[in-house]
Structure to design on (64 residues):
């Protein structure tokens, strides 16, 4: 069985979104449905961003 590697992520509870960070140079397979299943967040939507700066802003922001 293949091990699922989840990239760094931020959960935005108010909007029910999960933001994953993958750099542009990464060759990681973007399998958002598998990541969401592993995180057990079926009612959330997932998306990938490539900007480390924006990801860090989201991560450091209080989204509650």
């Amino acid at each position: 069985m293949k091990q699922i590697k989840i990239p760094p992520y931020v959960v935005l509870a108010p909007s029910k979104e999960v933001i994953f960070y993958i750099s542009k140079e990464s060759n990681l397979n973007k399998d958002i449905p598998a990541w969401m299943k592993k995180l057990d967040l079926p009612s959330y939507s997932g998306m990938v961003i490539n900007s480390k700066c924006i990801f860090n802003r989201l991560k450091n922001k209080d989204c509650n």
In short: Residues 9-60 form one domain. The CA atoms of residues 23 and 51 lie 7 Å apart.
